[in-house]
DNA sequence: CTGTTTGCAAAGTCTTTGCACAATC
DNA sequence: GATTGTGCAAAGACTTTGCAAACAG
């Protein structure tokens, strides 16, 4: 969950980044960032983001949303992520997840869970030793069944 | 490298899969599969594949290439892979790489190298223990600098 | 005020689909 | 010969761009 004061903090931080780049915090951008903050676990696509931002800012156009996420990606405020559905999704980097994180994609309910633990240190060391490849960044998506869906499956079995 | 006899073997195996599904090995499909076999390390996009197949089969249409990879994906003969550029690429599963493999994407030269080692056993165990998430499949892309590019960089330094 | 930003609509990519003709088994 | 497959062109999904009007700093 995100608290109101945290939201204000992040917004301020982002406004500063924009201003340093000579850009403006327009109502449209503000609404877009707020929506991303409020849904920071959801990995929204452009269309989804557009639909949500419209609740706050009904006049906004889809093109503006695309342009805003473009700007935010350049300023490293959001990450662009592409899952196997080929659709680009956006994912805020809050102060506590500055480094890239991993995704657990549930194949039952479609939920995406982030994990911030650094699980790959060892893997990256191996890749360096065995292939001479110097790792700078990584994308890891694990597909499977989440805890909730497993519990539901178990429940269904018990009910028989 | 792929030898001629290996290519014939794989083609035969694929023809059988097609026939089992009531599908035909047309010249277009044959040319597409051959191109995929010959370039099995390259992770071709539809357009790239189309351009290459055209050398063998100049009459082929782009739509046919799309339909062919669709069929091949359903038969688990190719994997669909999406990198961060958002473009879908296709990647043959030969008999020796039936399980899903990882990718090393060089940010200097754009080359994609596959690694077949199973590096994630430990990671998947941790995810199960810590999050109760049951992993069924995974996608891992490591971005960085490949051995060749590192060597070139080193060379450039030495030349100064 | 001045350069940015916006909304709209038009254009661009990549991919899928409809249909009449052609080819395979 | 019946069914599956093909090429083309048209349509679809997602994203980008051009432009005049609106706005933030």
TrEMBL record, chains A, B:
Protein origin, superkingdom: Bacteria
Any one GO BP annotation for this protein: negative regulation of DNA-templated transcription
GO molecular function terms listed in the Swiss-Prot or TrEMBL record: DNA-binding transcription factor activity; transcription cis-regulatory region binding; zinc ion binding
Record keyword Cytoplasm present: no
Entry keyword NAD: no
Keywords assigned by UniProt, alphabetized: DNA-binding, Iron, Metal-binding, Repressor, Transcription, Transcription regulation, Zinc
UniProt cofactor(s): Zn(2+); Mn(2+); Fe(2+)
Annotated InterPro entries: FUR, Fur_C, WH-like_DNA-bd_sf, WH_DNA-bd_sf
Pfam families reported in the protein's UniProt record: FUR
Residues in coiled coil: none
Entry binding sites for Fe cation: 138
Cofactor binding remark: Binds 1 zinc ion per subunit. Binds 1 Mn(2+) or Fe(2+) ion per subunit.
Annotated family: Belongs to the Fur family.
Protein name per Swiss-Prot or TrEMBL: Ferric uptake regulation protein
């Amino acid at each position: 969950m995100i608290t109101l004061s945290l939201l204000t903090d992040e917004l301020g931080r982002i406004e500063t980044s924009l201003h340093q780049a000579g850009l403006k915090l327009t109502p449209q951008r503000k609404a877009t960032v707020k929506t991303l903050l409020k849904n920071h676990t959801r990995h929204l696509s452009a269309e989804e983001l557009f639909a949500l931002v419209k609740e706050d800012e009904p006049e906004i156009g889809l093109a503006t949303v695309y342009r805003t996420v473009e700007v935010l990606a350049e300023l490293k405020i959001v990450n662009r992520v592409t899952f196997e559905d080929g659709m680009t999704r956006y994912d805020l980097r809050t102060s506590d997840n500055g480094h890239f994180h991993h995704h657990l994609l549930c194949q039952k309910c479609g939920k995406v869970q982030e994990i911030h633990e650094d699980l790959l240190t060892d893997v990256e060391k191996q890749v360096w030793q065995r292939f001479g490849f110097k790792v700078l960044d990584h994308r890891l998506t694990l597909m499977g069944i989440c805890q909730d869906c497993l519990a539901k499956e178990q429940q269904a079995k018990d009910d028989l």
